[in-house]
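Hi L.,

You mentioned the student needs an example of a multi-chain input paired with its predicted structure. This one should do, with 760 residues in total across all chains.
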Amino acid sequence: MENSLLSGNVVETQDLTKTFGEDIAVQSLNMQVPRGTIFGFVGPSGCGKTTTVRLLTGFYKPTSGSLSVLGKNPGDFLKTDSEKIGYLIQQFVLYPQLTVWENLNFAASFYGVGIFRRKHLHKLLDFVELRGDKHKLARDLSGGMKRRLSLAAALVHKPELLFLDEPTAGIDPILRQKFWDYFKELQAEGHSLFITTQYVGEAAFCDLVGVMYGGRLLMIETPNGLRRKAYGGDVIGIRTNENITFEHRQQLESLPFVRGKVKIVSDQEVEVIVDDAHTAVAFLLEWSQTQSLTVAMMEQKSPSFDDVFIRLIETEIEND
Amino acid sequence: MIRFIKFLIRISSFISKELKEIFRQPKLILTLVLGPFLIMFLFGLANPDQGRTLRTTFVVADPNSFQEEIDTFTKSFSSLLVSYVIESDKELALAKLAKNQTDMVIIVPDIPFETIQKNQQAEFLVYHNEIDPFQIGYIISVARIYVDEINRQFLQSVVEREQGESGSLQSDLETAIIKTQTLRQAIPTDNANTAARAAALEKDLTNLHEKLITFRSLASGVLVRPFSAKVSGLSDIQLTVIGFFAPAVIVLLLQHFSITFASLSIVRETRSGIMELFRVAPITAFETLVGKYLSYLFFEIILAGIITALAVWLLKIPILGQLQDYALAVIILLFTSLGVGFLISLISETDTQAVQYSMLLLLASIFFSGFFLDLRLMKEPIAFLAWSLPATYGIRMLKDIMLRGSSVPPLIFLGITLIGIALFMIDWLLLRKKMENQYA
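Structure written out for the whole complex:
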């Protein structure tokens, strides 16, 4: 753990567990978040995402296990350590009676940002596109604007590591996309981001995704890795001009690089799971010719993360 | 150095934030400034310096025979008896009292002179329909003054009558003295013993005559009431009721504003969720508390200044002492009251709870701080409790400085300062627990 900084991980946990009385909120969490990545923490509401963030920020003390954030246990953080962390809380907690500019100044002051900060704050407001609204009272802002203000406040002291707890919850898809653009820009500037979300589709924007369910971390994977894990390989869609018969499907399932059952999409279209899409396509074209099937379309399918997530959870429940 | 600069920057965040939040509520500021002034102004208009006048019904057996005496008597009580009627029917008078058509019923004894001659006191029965202990006390006082006046008038009339009748006694004495002189001169010179007795008799008669002259020359009013009292205070200033209460009103209001502001401050932040951010951010409980203390102190010093200026210039409330003493007393009162407010804020779960605690404390301050009940009248354990309220110290200090022209009483100042510092320490520890070390 002590060597986490040297190892390039901003977050490391080992068997991290948090219980509230009889309830287990987080169970034996083991993860490593490399520096400079966007780490997505995905899971349904109440699965332990916020509890994990609170453990990592030092708000909660672990019941058991160990953790290291920027090389230190958050419970032992000094001011200098806290200054390296930015935290966006789920709900809007800034002051409704203050303007956007005043709230940002307040955040800057309590993080100890120097008094010559006007330019920096304007830059931040430009970044979250709130400069034109800087004199508006926070209570008069829309939900999305409040989230952007909170994000600016979390960034005001240029933290190395950002914990963003459901930053896109309750906002429209266009703004959500914009938020992910911000996050990518922040990553490009060298920040590490730990983002929780219940929008499974947002996993696509992350470098690494941790899937939480029922207080347990099911896996940490790249977005593509998640798909492969969910389906057991790559998914290839095949559409032919002729009908694909039961015999055709049986032959397909018997091919050595095909995994599991063939999924029927229509009479002339199926989906097959293969070990590796790039090598499998040539073999599948050859097989179609031998079966006198004219291929109208053959391509690698990219299942939505909603489907991926549902499949992963279903597998987990089956395994239980 | 950098750490100290960052400390200043961090506390400035709260100073700036709290002040902006307050100044963004102009109606609140207007209420805080004008409210206390208006309360004192209206209190002055209520003319509380005047005692309550009582509508009185006299019940006498024969109204006609007493009309003149009662008319004369009530003239000397015009400040206490606003109107009066004379009835002969006691039941009717009591029924009017029950209906609140009269404030007091006085039953005049039927045959007072005959009763006195029988060596008994003639009793006036006084009825009222009050439930307020202070009003009952007032009516008892008025009844006593009334009976004293009756007694005085009665004695005076007796003395005047006796002085008149003693005129014939005086001439009889003068005749007796002349006759005694004649008799003494007629006694032979060899009868020295008889002559001496006659001379002694003459001397006794002369003494008696002189005393009778003195008796007749004294005013009957002086004779029946030979002593009077004149009361003077050490201070030359003549205080009105509003003048007397103004320092206490200022103290109570400033204490209440401080407690209310502070009590809502932290509890709101706890409930809004920003405390979670404070716990994670590099700000300490000490910095947060100092920032909040300074912001509220700054605002309330301005508020106290405006309220004082209005009271002095418009209501003519005096400040006989030094202004710097007054300022010092107000600042330490505000500091300690803020400590109480933050303590409430730290132990309250909701806004409502904080407001309820603040109101309870205001009520306790009204009853126990010496606002209207003198602390010297309180029994020991309660009086000790009274000294745990900032208002008790504040009222004592401001009354001494404003109305007596004294400087800050050192022991009182020390007492409130120690309480203020103790509260700051407790608040700091509680906030630290809330912000820094209280892992869930």
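You could point out the following to them. Chain A has eleven helices and 13 strands. Residues 85 and 159 of chain A are 5 Å apart (CA to CA).

Best wishes,
N.
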